[in-house]
Amino acid sequence: MSANQSPAGQQQTGTHDSAFLRACRREPVPHTPVWFMRQAGRSLPEYRKVREGIPMLDSCMRPELVTEITLQPVRRHNVDAAIYYSDIVVPLKAIGIDLDIKPGVGPVIANPIRSRADLAQLRDLTPEDVWYVTEAIGLLTAELGPTPLIGFAGAPFTLASYLVEGGPSRNHEHTKALMYGDPQLWADLLDRLAEITSAFLKVQIEAGASAVQLFDSWVGALAPADYRRSVMPASAKVFRAVESYGVPRIHFGVGTGELLGLMGEAGADVVGVDWRVPLDEAARRVGPGKALQGNFDPAILFSTPEAVEVKAREVLDAAAGLEGHVFNLGHGVPPTTDPDALTRLVEYVHTQTAR
Predict the structure, then answer these.
(1) CA 261: distance to chain centroid?
(2) Alpha-carbon separation of residue 61 from 54, 58, 94, 260 (angstroms)
(3) What angle do CA 335, 338, 339 make, to 5 degrees?
(4) CA-to-CA distance for 155 and 272, rounded, in angstroms?
(5) 300-330 CB burial, b ≥16 within 10 A, e <16
(6) What are the residues facing 100 on neighbouring strands?
(7) Which of 30, 169, 244, 298 has its CB surrounded by the most CB atoms within 10 Å?
(8) Is 120 helix (H, G, I), strand (E, B) or coil?
(9) 75-84 burial: b if 16+ Cβ within 10 Å, else e
(10) Which residues are catalytic?
(11) At 100, which helix (H) or strand (E)?
């Protein structure tokens, strides 16, 4: 099934003709659809209230709480899609990796993967390992109705970087040392992670997700030749694994201006663009046959409403000639963002692009 066909689940929920999915399929839209990475979370007071006293990973494993948090920005901002509330390390935790998300730091791995023996930590992921995902998505799709739900996962490179470094890293020294020093072990690690990621995305799609996004947050640390040789095969394997479901597949990374063409080539239907490359130039780099997502600079949300509108207009003008465009930020919503700035931005984009 191609991304231009309608999976049965989308027909049943009425999401197939939503502005978001139409834009992903490069079809005419009633307005440019908008959603925001990290729209469900730290910027919302209602999120902080329901999360109070609950550790991050615990919150990802409570279906009713996941449902409430995922719905909050849809209610508040009138965005065109919800994104499933979770974290990219959830599937790793589910298969028994000893990790925790430390406030102000991020995911921390107790036993980093540095040798072939360490690969034994990475067993296959089964639907039973993430039963709470299936349950939460069932609850969500019932509540969302015609609003699409985006499932997501971390890409093999970014997951590998966390696992090898033991946590967030600025320069990825251990990751690159392994990639260059033992290319076979590196390839085996990424292939194993591609299997786990594919299984995690399949669970979300089969439960009712209308689209999926693969986050390769750290891949901008690589040169194009290294990406093509050492990363792209694993990412392509993930996209192939879910191709038959016919849901749009989005690929996003930060600082990936030099990789945009390759990221599209890996198999995405939609390529996410951060704020560093204008969308018209990004389209030239990606080539025909792909929609683009992005790319408002999230830092501008802290400026005046007038400045936000000026910048949003620039993004929309740069997107005017695209085959398909989903308006988004060039990265996640910063935690101290005024939620009203996001609500106003959604309304502005919808009003300016109404057809």
Answers:
(1) 18
(2) 11, 5, 10, 33
(3) 95
(4) 14
(5) bbeeeeeebeebbeebbebbeebebbbbbbb
(6) 108
(7) 298
(8) helix
(9) ebbebbbbbb
(10) 38, 42, 51, 87, 162
(11) strand 99-102
